[in-house]
Amino acid sequence: MLDHQYSENLSEVQESKHHYPPNIHLIGNSYTHTLLGLIGASETKQPHLNLYVEWCYLYLLQAAMNKIFPKKIQTKTTRMEEHHPGHGMVQFQGFNEDHPIVVIDIARAGSWPSQTCYQHLNYFFPPDNIRQDHIYINRKTDASGQVVGQTLAGSKIGGSINHAILIFPDPMGASGGTIDAAIKHYQESASGTPHSMIALHLMITPEYIERMKKDFPKVEIFALRLDRGLSSERALQALPGKFPAEEKGLNNFQYVVPGAGGVGEILNNSFV
Length: 272
Prior knowledge:
The protein has 7 helices and 10 strands. With 272 residues, the protein is an alpha/beta fold. The chain has one domain (23-70, 78-268): 3-Layer(aba) Sandwich (Rossmann fold), CATH 3.40.50.2020.
């Protein structure tokens, strides 16, 4: 007789309350907010930044797996079966291993988060079902430094995305332009219909949420923090999303406030 408790669905993720659509998952806590404080601190350099970002992405990935990944009942035989035949088995609701998983490296700030997720997933699922794609996207700015779009310099997509779980790890969900361009590139260049699409961010802004709500309302978005530091006092005192017209998280150069300031540059030690 197997213990009923092991078959329960333990997929709930603790989320902050808000007035945004249900695909927005704000999952930060004291642990992750402390890490984000360290990531944004002016004194944080390599190699510490890589480690802090890695810890954040392992937390984000865990939440997305629990919330979104398909599940199935599994039975595993433990080493105690030898000593207690018929009783050394455990049954639980684990992950369905049948779905292919594609982790998208959005160079350059997304390269380390993507590698972290890709490597971790290989320990949970058959490696033959997991691949890492690469997309090279940069912000395009005008003479005054204003962001006017994205430049997609190239990509390496390793095959079909049919029934696949697509994961887009990108630290800063600022204007939404990068994720927007990446998803559209898959829609235009890859064959098949994915099972689901998941975006993993350290921080997002109200502007990002508005854009994704309009363009890709079915993308599941996980973030450790919502940054809206330029919002009105009334908006800041209310639950996120209650006064969307008064919420603002981007400065005139589309950088996140308070944000973290140049995460991609410090991750790569390349300040160009």
